[in-house]
Write a structure and sequence with these properties.
With 295 residues, the chain is an alpha/beta fold. It has 2 domains: 4-159, NAD(P)-binding Rossmann-like Domain (Rossmann fold, 3-Layer(aba) Sandwich); 166-286, N-(1-d-carboxylethyl)-l-norvaline Dehydrogenase, domain 2 (Orthogonal Bundle). The protein is built from 13 helices and 9 strands. It has helices at residues 11-22, 34-42, 51-57, 68-78, 96-107, 121-127, 141-148, 163-191, 196-203, 211-221, 232-248, 254-269, 279-286, and strands spanning 4-7, 27-30, 46-47, 60-63, 87-90, 112-115, 118-119, 130-134, 152-156. It has a 6-stranded parallel β-sheet, with helices on both faces. A 3-stranded mixed β-sheet has the order 7-8-9. Helix 1 (11-22) packs parallel to helix 6 (121-127), helix 4 packs parallel to helix 5 (96-107) and helix 8 crosses helix 10 (211-221). The longest helix has 29 residues, at 163-191.
């Protein structure tokens, strides 16, 4: 079995890379964090000294990185120069424009490029229950899909570069909006005297159910921990990408703009390290509730 390269061992990347190790796939890994690399080496992976070295040792290279500028730099300045790589897969949410740029730049080096952003959070990465929205050349797809299947359910969105990224932006628009609107509804009910735990119970048996009422409120908002595991800064990046890309093709997203701005306010008031569920604190404060109250 040929080695698979994995660049980026953060909270999502490490979970996916560990899935490959557990399945017996030879994995070559790199991250700027020596501690993150050491955890993967302990699970059976081989460490590389750089992203370029990963691409020198693996035919198929996966990348899970936080920001589009980092994805661009790693893929075009390092992976593209690798001596072994023939397929590169961006698992990050980095937008369709960058996916097209990567496809063109990597094709010039004889490398097939795929965008395959993921959804499902840290637990999904750990348990192999992510959804993956992928696009790229049909001729190498079977090889790519066989690797991605270790991470969860794979949806092939077609050959057009960026199709997977567009689907992910739609998903994240709905997911972030669910948090924002649930925060508004819950704040209304709490100020009117309703018990928040009972409200969530009712919503999850009624038409108001959504991804926020189903898991984010029970796990992170009702207990007031606000630690679901996805940074508000990354959610803001995703919403900005979504709004910007929609505007380019003539689609107005007024609700998306509101949620993007709410995430910015969350970063400004709660802090740069805030979880995206902390949007709730801003909504509550606007309505006179104490966002620091106990569960």
């Amino acid at each position: 079995m040929s080695a698979v390269g994995f660049i980026g061992l953060g909270r999502m990347g490490s979970g996916m890379a560990l899935r490959l190790c557990a399945a017996g796939v030879p994995v070559v890994v790199y991250d700027t964090s020596a501690e993150a690399v050491a955890r993967l080496v302990a699970a059976g992976a081989t460490a590389a000294a750089s992203a370029r070295e990963v691409a020198d040792k693996a035919r198929l290279v996966l990348a899970s990185l936080p920001m589009p500028n980092i994805v661009r730099s790693v893929m075009l300045d390092e992976v593209a120069k690798g001596s072994a790589v023939k397929i590169a897969v961006d698992l990050s949410t980095s937008g369709p424009d960058l996916a097209i740029e990567l496809a063109e730049g990597l094709a010039a080096k004889g490398i097939a490029s795929y965008d395959a952003p993921v959804s499902g959070g840290i637990a999904g990465a750990r348990d192999g229950k992510l959804s993956l929205m992928a696009s790229g050349p049909a001729e190498c797809w079977a090889e790519v899909e066989a690797v991605l299947a270790h991470f969860g359910k794979v949806f092939y969105m077609g050959e057009a570069a960026g199709a997977g990224q567009t689907m992910k932006l739609v998903n994240n628009l709905l997911g972030a909006t669910a948090i924002a609107v649930t925060a508004e509804g819950m704040t209304f009910g709490i100020k009117a005297g309703l018990d928040p735990a009972r409200m969530i119970e009712v919503l999850n048996q009624s038409t108001g159910i959504n991804s926020a009422t189903r898991d984010k409120w029970p796990k992170s908002v009702l207990p007031r921990t606000f630690d679901f595991g996805f940074a508000a800064a990354l959610s803001h990046k995703d919403m900005k990408l979504c709004v910007d890309e929609a505007e380019k093709i003539g689609v107005e997203l007024p609700i998306g703009v509101h949620v993007r701005d709410l995430l910015q306010r969350t970063l400004d008031t709660v802090g740069a390290d805030a979880d995206f569920t902390a949007m709730t604190k801003v909504v509550e404060a606007d309505s006179g509730l104490d966002p620091e109250r106990k569960a």
